Each structure stands twice: as C-alpha cells, then as structure tokens.
Amino acid sequence: MKLRWFAFLVVILAGCSSKQDYKNPPWNPEVPVKRAMQWMPITEKASAAWGVSPRLVTAIIAVESGGNPTLVSKSNAVGLMQLKASTAGREVYRYMGWSGQPSTSELKNPERNISMGTAYLSILEHGILKGIEDPEVMQYALVVSYVNGAGALLRTFSSDRKEAIEEINDMDKDEFFEHVAEKHPSPQAPRYIWKVQKAMDAM
To answer: What EC number(s) are associated with this protein in UniProt (predicted)?
Structure first.
C-alpha cells in the first residue's frame, strides 16, 4: 500500500515538474533578436498602421523564425512571423474583404509577412480578446493566442467568452502566466510567453 502511494506521489510530482519546465532547453535570444531587428523599418511601419507594439512584433519574429524570411515549418507556417495561409492568412484576408488566402511566395515576402502578422495580432486584440484591461496581461494573451489560438486560451477559463474575459481581468500578469502554465493544453504556451519576453528584454 505504501509502495502504491509512493508511486502515485512520484507521478504527481513528475507532472508538476513538467509543467514548470518551460525554461528548458535554454534559449539565448541575442542572435535571433539581432537578426529580427534588421526588419525594424518594415516592422515599425506595420505596427504604426495596426496599432501594435513594434517591440512585440520584433520579438515574435525572433522567436518564430530567427529573422529568416524564407523559413517554412513542418506544419507549413511561412516566413518571418511563421504564418499559416489557411488560418492567420485567411483570417487577415477575410478582415480585409479579400477572398481566399495568401500564397507561400506572398508569405515569404518580408513586407507582406510582417504586415499580415501584425494585422493578425490587431484582429485578435480588438476581436476575440477585446475587453482584457491590463496591457501586460493582454500582451501575454496575444502571444499565447498567436501561437496556439485564442479559442484554446479562453476555454481554459470558461466556455463563455464574456465570462473568460472577466476571469482574466481578475488576474495580474503573473497569475495569468501561472494559469497558462497549469491549465493550457499545450506545453508550448508558457514557453512561448517566456521566450517572447526574453526577446523583448534583449532589445
């Protein structure tokens, strides 16, 4: 009986430790941030047009592609901000009143990629995430939504969007981060927040 409880405790502790393991493997933002900052003239222009922080956009570029405009992932995310044509690309096209979705060559174009990635962040902020009051919490919510979808994030609070936003507004950024680390189905989510913050701190 004692052995069974010990085994159970080991499993529980292992589960807890894996949730806190977002800092492993270590990540040095210096080189990717330097490469991402080469695109700052385009980033600042897109950020001004869409009302998004250029530092946040640059950090996402650093984390997503390391500043490589031709990068294509295994899941077919393309370019500097690693946009998927069928999800974020289609969403931006719809918002702009265009039909279809961007081509791979369009997403490999640095100006188009950064413009669409920044537009997507703005669409998230003023759409499904609208109502989050704390700007730092909003930034964390944007980052998680950008990489794993806003719906997946809000469902960790409530199936009702309004109730989810209200719960988020009861938290500061540290409480929000802990919630994501404990409740989000993707282990990538807290690590992504951490990496983006590291990139922003390195600028």
So the answer is: 4.2.2.n2
